Amino acid sequence: MLRLLYSWLLRLHPEGFRKRFAQEMLSIFDHVEKGPAAVKLVADALLSLVRQWTVRSEYWERASERVPWSADGAPVFYTLESFKPRRGALFAGGILTLTLFCAGYLDLKFDWSDSAFIPFKGIEFTTSPKVDAPSSLGRAVAPAKIPEAALQTYPGAYVTDPPNEFTILIAAEDGELAIEIPREPKSRLVPAHGTRFVFSGSHDGNVNWIEFVKHDDGTADELRIYRNGRHLTAHRRP
Amino acid sequence: MKEDLSTFLPLSPATLHILLSLAGEDLHGYAIMQEVARQSEGQYKLGPGTLYDNLQKMIDRRFVLELGHRAGDDDPRRRYYRLAVRGRAILAAEVARLEGVVREANLRLRPAKPRRA
Question: What 3-state class would DSSP assign to A202?
Fold first, then answer.
């Protein structure tokens, strides 16, 4: 059984390696005492397989290439239609695809609010007064002051998209942003990172956030809100 | 003109042990594995995958020659290998380098002489 597995692993090696060394490796396997030593050889073959296809793949591809020559001695050139990707490239591409797929899946599965609070670069930190940061962010941080120039790009009236249109007011007060939504108390916005802010005083572990989308001239002309389980989009009133 | 082999130094442990095992006589793969284990007193063991991966590199660099099957051998799948002149030179260079390391180590690890007050 182990011998079958071992020879199967050898068959999976690149053709050049297999033709050159597979029989010798099988010969060694046959001379080794069966038991733990044979199991170690199987593990070694598995490592060898990964090594040959990842680290050494280019070597075997180059070794197997032969410059084609026509009957009269002139080189023959392949066109794009006959292009075949290298096996090593396919293998590496498969691993990369799988990794990216897993990363994308995990990113979609977990809300951004589960990540750590990342301070916005360039913001001047102060120690007064403490913001009651949402518990789901993991740790409380001192509020950051947004530079005045950046602060003034956000205030304005934003109208939500139909069918339920209403106006959201963003104001700059004492170096911070505040948001007014109809029939709700005014809230301060705590900078998260980039153009993303968190509603201060979020309860029950729910993190409500707002993200501004800026125009080419640097002013915010759209905002996206995640609040109490709902997503809203609003555009700046002209 | 003497070839500059310093670009290949330092040798990996696997390469060093394989070259060392071939320094005495021509050997086949399994015998190389056994000789490496014997030389290192069991501290360093080569698997066939590592062995042939290194042999392939050494053959390409002309450190080792592949002799093929030896007549009279009971297993026709075995192929023998010989240390080439270039391989012997690189082995000597590596041993010289290691001797320098040992010399330096002995100097620095020597107990400090007591100083007079």
Answer: coil
* Topology given in CATH for the domain delimited by A124-236: Lipocalin (2.40.128)
pLDDT digits (tens, 9 = 90+) for A76-109: 555 555 556 777 888 888 888 999 988 888 887 7
What does DSSP say about strands A176-180 and A167-173: parallel, antiparallel, or unpaired?
A: antiparallel
Collapse the DSSP code of A90 into the 3-class scheme (helix H, G, I; strand E, B; otherwise coil) and give the result: helix
Specify the number of domains making up chain B: 1
Q: Is residue B74 part of a domain?
A: yes
Contact list in A for residue B75 (CB cut-off 8 A) is 27, 30-31
Say if residues A207 and A129 touch (Cβ distance below 8 Å): no
Supply the pLDDT for residue A113: 54
Question: Is A51 in Cβ contact with B28 (below 8 Å)?
Answer: no
> Is B47 inside a domain boundary?
yes
Do the beta carbons of residue A89 and residue A60 sit within 8 Å?
no
CB contact under 8 A, B52 and A24: yes
What is the CATH number for B43? 1.10.10.10
Residue among B28, B34, B51, B52 with most chain A CBs within 10 A, to mutate = B52
